[in-house]
Amino acid sequence: MHLIKNISLIILIIGYTLAGINHFVNPTSYHRIIPHYLPYPVVINIIAGAAEILLALLLIPTQIRPWAAYTIILMLIAFLPVHITMLVNAPFRLGKLNVTPLLAWIRLALQPVLMAWAWWYTKS
After folding, report:
1. Torsion angle (degrees, nearest 10) of CA 12, 97, 51, 40
2. Environment class of 35 (CB within 10 Å of its CB; exposed 0-12, middle 13-18, buried 19+)
3. Along the chain (124 residues), what's the average pLDDT of each consecutive run of 10 residues?
4. Biggest CA-to-CA distance, the chain
5. Which of 8, 20, 91, 96 would be a feasible disulfide site paired with 53, CB 3.0-4.6 Å?
6. How distant, in Å, are the alpha carbons of 62, 114, 122, 123 from that of 119?
7. Helix (H, G, I), strand (E, B) or coil at 93
8. Which residues have C-beta within 8 Å of that of residue 13, sequence separation ≥ 6?
């Protein structure tokens, strides 16, 4: 089980790092899905991308891993309005991706899974 948890941690770190980098590589896609009632989508995107990268790296040291995991959970909660907005606006095109209602539902349903995955690292 320890090996599985370590491999899962590496996948989590790489996943959040790549997701964070993608905020800077494809910013327009993120600007389009930030709810219109939130001001400064460019700034929100930069903060979200930087937070994903930073929190991924903070998962590495064992001393602060629980804190990073709890913060990832909070970040995922903060991202819920984006996923709800995607669901409300589906279907729509996001770059090369066609966001269907089914895809938007799957993405929204994935949030609790990601939260549980991060929760696994709140304990040693």
Report:
1. -170
2. middle
3. 94 98 96 95 98 98 98 98 96 91 97 98 88
4. 44
5. 20
6. 14, 8, 5, 8
7. strand
8. 56, 57, 59, 60
CA gap 61, 69 in Å, rounded = 12
φ, ψ of residue 99 to 5 degrees: the values are: -85, 100
Three-state DSSP state, 95 = coil
CA–CA dist 59, 80 (Å, integer): 22
> Which amino acid would we find at residue 79?
F
Tokens of 50: 């930087």
Calpha distance 107→101 (Å, rounded): 10
C-alpha pair distances (Å), 27 with each of 7, 44, 59, 71: 29, 10, 25, 23
Tokens (6 digits) for 8: 């899962």
pTM across the whole model? 0.93
CB 53 within 8 A of CB 64: no
For residue 123, give both structure tokens.
Answer: 């304990």
Residue 69's identity, in one-letter code, is A
